[in-house]
Design goal:
About 20% of the residues lie in helices and about 20% in strands. By secondary structure, it is an alpha+beta fold. The chain has one domain: Ribonuclease Z/Hydroxyacylglutathione hydrolase-like (Metallo-beta-lactamase, Chain A, 4-Layer Sandwich), CATH 3.60.15. A hairpin with an 8-residue loop joins strand 1 and strand 2. It is globular, with a radius of gyration of 14 Å. It starts with 8 loop residues before the first helix and ends with a helix. About 25% of the residues are buried.
Amino acid sequence: MVRTNGNHERAWETLGKLGAKISRVPKGFFSIPLPGGGEGETAFFHNSTGSLVLGDALIHLAPHGLMILPDKYCTDPALLRKSLGQLLKLPIRRIFFAHGDPILQNGLERIKKLLA
C-alpha cells in the first residue's frame, strides 16, 4: 500500500492500524510529484515492468474511461495538466488507479491520447 496524496489519509491511517505494510516509495519504484492535483499528489513508476501507480490525478471509471481529475478536486487544474506531461517520457505499459480499473497494455498511448 502506498500513499498517493493527502486525500487518502483516512485509508492510510486505517491500514496502518490493521498492521498493513505501508511504504512511502515502494521498492523498485520512483516517485513522480504531480502538483496541481490533490494535495501531495504523487505517482509511482516501476521502470522494469512499465507499471505506473496513480492516486487521483487520472481516473479510469466507466462509462467515461480514462480522464483527468475533474477541476473541482484540483488545487490548480492547469498545473496538473502540465505536470501530467512528464509521464509522456516514461515507457508506461500498465496503469493502476486509486479509482477505476487498471489499464494492462498500451498505457503510454492512452495517456498521450488523453493529453493531446
